[in-house]
C-alpha cells in the first residue's frame, strides 16, 4: 500500500536520481505528457479486440515508461535510468512498414473515431505530439541531451496514426476523409 507523504503539497515533485522541481517545470510537463500518452494507449488496448493491436500498444506503453524514466531523471543524477536509442527508433519504423503493408493508408486527413479503439489511438497520437512539443521545449533549454527522444516520439506519432488505420481496416470501418 502506498503511504501518503504530502511531499508534493508544496508544489514540487522529486526527480529520479535526486532533486526536486516545481510541478510545472518543463521536465515534469514532458514526462507527465508521456505518462498521459501511455494511459490513452491503455484505453486503446482495452477497447480493441485485435491481439496484434493489443500487443503493439503494450510494447509502446513499455517504451513510454522507459522514456518517462529518462525524462524524469535529474540532470544531476550520476546515471540516467533509461536511454532512448536509435535502435528503438528503427523498431518503430519497422512496425510502421509492417502495418502499412497490410492496410491501405488514406490519401489525406481523416476524421478520427470510426471505432472506439481507433479513436483512442488517434487521441494517443495527439498526446504524443504534445509530448514531442514539450520535449522540444525541454531540449532547447538544454534539458535533453539525447536527440533520439525527439526522433522516437516523432516516429511514435506516425506509428499511432498507422495503427489506428490498421485497427479500422481490421474491422472494415475505414475512417472518413476530413474533406468531403
Explain how this protein is built:
This protein has 180 residues and is mainly α. It has a single domain, classed as Hypothetical Protein Ta1238, Chain: A, CATH 1.20.1200.10. The chain has helices spanning 26-47, 51-71, 86-100, 116-140, 148-171; strands at 12-14, 20-22, 110-111, 176-177. The strands form two sheets. It has a two-stranded antiparallel sheet. Helix 1 packs antiparallel against helix 2 and helix 4 (116-140) packs antiparallel against helix 5 (148-171). The model has no long low-confidence stretch (mean pLDDT 93).
Topology:
Layout: E1 12-14, E2 20-22, H1 26-47, H2 51-71, H3 86-100, E3 110-111, H4 116-140, H5 148-171, E4 176-177
Antiparallel strand pairs: 1-2, 3-4
Describe the structure concisely.
The protein has a single domain, classed as Hypothetical Protein Ta1238, Chain: A (Up-down Bundle), CATH 1.20.1200. The chain has 180 residues and is mainly alpha-helical.
Amino acid at each position: 500500500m502506498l503511504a501518503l507523504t504530502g511531499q508534493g503539497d508544496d508544489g514540487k515533485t522529486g526527480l529520479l536520481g535526486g532533486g526536486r522541481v516545481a510541478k510545472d517545470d518543463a521536465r515534469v510537463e514532458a514526462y507527465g505528457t508521456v505518462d498521459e500518452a501511455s494511459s490513452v494507449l491503455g484505453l486503446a488496448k482495452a477497447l480493441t479486440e485485435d491481439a496484434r493491436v493489443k500487443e503493439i500498444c503494450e510494447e509502446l506503453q513499455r517504451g513510454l515508461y522507459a522514456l518517462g524514466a529518462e525524462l524524469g531523471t535529474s540532470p544531476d543524477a550520476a546515471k540516467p535510468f533509461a536511454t532512448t536509442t536509435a535502435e528503438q527508433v528503427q523498431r518503430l519504423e519497422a512496425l510502421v512498414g509492417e502495418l502499412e503493408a497490410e492496410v491501405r493508408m488514406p490519401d489525406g486527413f481523416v476524421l478520427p473515431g470510426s471505432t472506439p479503439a481507433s479513436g483512442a489511438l488517434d487521441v494517443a497520437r495527439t498526446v504524443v505530439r504534445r509530448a514531442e512539443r514539450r520535449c522540444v521545449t525541454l531540449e532547447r533549454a538544454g534539458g535533453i541531451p539525447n536527440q533520439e527522444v525527439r526522433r522516437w516520439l516523432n516516429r511514435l506519432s506516425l506509428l499511432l496514426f498507422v495503427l489506428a488505420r490498421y485497427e479500422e481496416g481490421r474491422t472494415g470501418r475505414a475512417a472518413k476523409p476530413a474533406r468531403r
